[in-house]
Amino acid sequence: MNAAGLRIIQQTARRSWLKALRRPVPLSFSFVQPMFWMLIFGFLFHRFSLGPAYAGISYLSFLLPGVCAMTVLFGASQAGIDVVRDLQTGFAQRMARATAHPGCMLGGKLAGDVTRFLAQATVVAVLGVALGARLSVDVAALAVAVVGLAAFAVAYASLSCWIALKTRAPESMAVFVHVVNLPLLFTSTALVPAKQMPAWLETAARWNPLTRVADGLRQALLLSNMPDAAALLVPLVILATLLFALARREMARAGDE
Questions:
Q1: Which own/partner pairs from 81-84 qualify as long-range (CB within 8 Å, at least 24 positions apart)?
Q2: pLDDT in tens, 120-139
Q3: Which of 42, 136, 182, 197 shows a CA-CA span of 20 to 30 A to 250?
């Protein structure tokens, strides 16, 4: 990658951050929703049995890594909304033609978005500790888990951008956010351990990428254990690479119009 490509990535990432900071209401809501989940679910199910794997851990503490992963999930699902706006104004097409680097444009947007999602998840973790969650952190394990969380964010945000570029309709983004997010959340271990699920749901959870992320964060934040790096990172990196390639191809097509 040449200097021009790096400059495009840097400026596009900066634009993503500035757009988010200039809209304080949606940014604030990204913290209100996780707080709601922790306050309601964390204390409503404080007597819920987590099983021997999480013996001695409160439900609020168990929930916190799942809510951090959920924060990234919900943020990444909305990454395509800005793309639809840029397409409707013609900005995306003009930039793709002017720079001739659609991959760098998309990469810069995702870099800005994903770093913001990770920062939001960090704030949510701090809020969870303030509410009473108790953590036992292994720094090296947390680094691996965060890389997995970032790969998941890139994959899901790329999918959101691909849908936006393919349909170019705000309605399609609303359907994607509302129809996909909750099934993905409730068929994962973000809220409940796999061993406490019915057999069919436990099987579905194993194939859910959000499960890998939530479990990896719990290993690092609650149990001070190193997640299985290969099992966590390899599938998520492959998924992120494939979905980024799909979104990049649609971005290039937008530049050809």
A1: 81/160, 81/164, 81/170, 81/173, 82/16, 82/19, 82/109, 83/109, 83/161, 83/164, 83/165, 84/164, 84/168, 84/169, 84/170, 84/173
A2: 999 999 999 999 899 999 99
A3: 182
